[in-house]
Write a structure and sequence with these properties.
Elements (H helix, E strand, L loop, with lengths): L1 H29 L4 H23 L9 H27 L3 H7 L3 H9 L12 H22 L4 E3 L7 H6 L12 H26 L3 H23 L10 H29 L1 H5 L2 H15 L4 E2 H56 L1 H18 L1
Antiparallel strand pairs: 1-2
Length: 377
């Protein structure tokens, strides 16, 4: 019971950490920080914070690095951080934290869509589990389209109380730098690149059993890539200066929302499995919406609320189908193991009966086999 509660509390902390990243990133970008600059700083601080784990925890167990694995880590840096984070932060700048956290729930569905043609996942429409995964994916995508294309009326208005710093540094989160089509569209693309990263990262984990080392290398490569892209888009050094709130943002995003949450999520996956961890994704949506409403005075529109509910429902449907499929596979493996054990026991009993009933014939056969072996030698 104590371990169950520990895992639950840790996953709550992880979701709060992610929500904090979205809120503070939106705040500093509405205050004038460029999205490409934000994207460049994050992997730098992530590398600095996760490198000690790689050095001390995997120093003696780190396997040999090959060119193939290094190239796959490079692809992970492209899709998982460089492309993903640049598109993500531009999407966040043109939308709201609630929309960001809602579209994040598309990642399992996009991963499934990519994995089916590659043969990693089976569609299995003849089974209930396969149909549930398929329709869950369709519902998720439909919810994302509704959220992107339909705005609607205000369901929950602005709160009178809000963060004083947000009032002084940023404009209204509902109108400043917001594009209610471009923002969600870019966030959907960001979720797609993250799903591609998950597929490649799974291959890396299979071939290179040193997750902290591979993550450190990925973040290091992404740091170089994002800095090059950042300076091409934002060449002025004045744009790269960090005031106190910007410094807090980039350090928090790199150390807390990347390294720390990666470590905690990995521990929870080891204890309870990936499906259990995925079930907490909607909590990120609830916390982000609540914090954005309180601190940034975000309005909640009908399209956002309906789209978010549909996406979460589709995600849970997909996870339910995946759970049924996994349970079915486990039952099949257990039955196959049981049948093999019964067959082995039956063969052993038959052999013992033969040895008991025909000891003379068995001795003659053994002598014959020994004679043949000597002749061959």
């Amino acid at each position: 019971m104590g371990n169950e509660l520990m895992v639950f509390m840790i996953m709550m902390i992880v979701q709060v950490a992610y929500a904090g990243m979205v809120i503070i990133s939106k705040l500093v970008m509405d205050g004038g920080m460029n999205a490409f600059v934000q994207s460049a700083y994050r992997p730098i601080f992530a590398t600095i914070s996760i490198a000690p784990f790689a050095f001390f925890l995997e120093r003696k167990t780190r396997p040999k690095m090959t060119r193939s694995i290094l190239f796959q880590i490079f692809l992970c840096s492209i899709f998982g951080i460089t492309a993903n984070q640049n598109i993500y932060f531009i999407g966040l700048k043109n939308s709201t934290p609630t929309i960001v956290s809602a579209i994040d729930n598309l990642i399992p569905a996009f991963t499934f869509i990519i994995a089916v043609p590659l043969g990693i996942e089976k569609l299995g429409l003849r089974s209930i589990a396969g149909q549930t995964k398929f329709w869950g994916t369709i519902i998720c995508v439909g919810g994302a389209m509704l959220l992107s294309l339909y705005h609607g009326k205000v369901v929950i208005g602005q709160l009178g109380f809000h963060w004083k710093y947000a009032e002084n540094t940023s404009k209204d989160v509902n109108s400043a730098n917001s594009n209610f089509f471009l923002g969600p569209f870019l966030l959907i693309v960001s979720s797609l690149t993250y799903a591609i990263w998950l597929i490649i990262q799974a291959r890396v984990n299979e071939k290179y059993a040193a997750p902290y080392t591979s993550t450190t290398l990925m973040c290091l490569m992404a740091s170089v890539e994002c800095v090059i892209i950042g300076f091409c888009v934002v060449p002025k050094l004045s744009e790269w200066k960090l005031n106190p709130i910007r410094a807090v943002s980039v350090v928090y995003n790199g150390a807390m929302a990347t390294s720390f949450t990666y470590y905690l999520s990995s521990w929870c996956i080891e204890k309870k499995g990936p499906l259990y961890v995925s079930m907490f994704n909607p909590l990120f949506l609830v916390i982000s919406a609540f914090l954005s409403w309180i601190l940034l005075r975000e309005k909640l529109y009908l399209g956002v609320v309906l789209g978010s509910i549909i996406i979460v429902a589709g995600m849970y449907g997909f996870l339910w189908g995946k759970k049924m499929e996994t349970s079915s596979e486990d039952i099949d493996v257990l039955e196959l193991t049981k049948e093999k054990k019964q067959l082995s026991t039956k063969l052993q009993v038959d052999l013992e009966l033969q040895l008991t009933q025909n000891p003379k014939d068995n001795n003659n056969n053994n002598i014959k086999q020994i004679t043949e072996s000597k002749t061959e030698l």
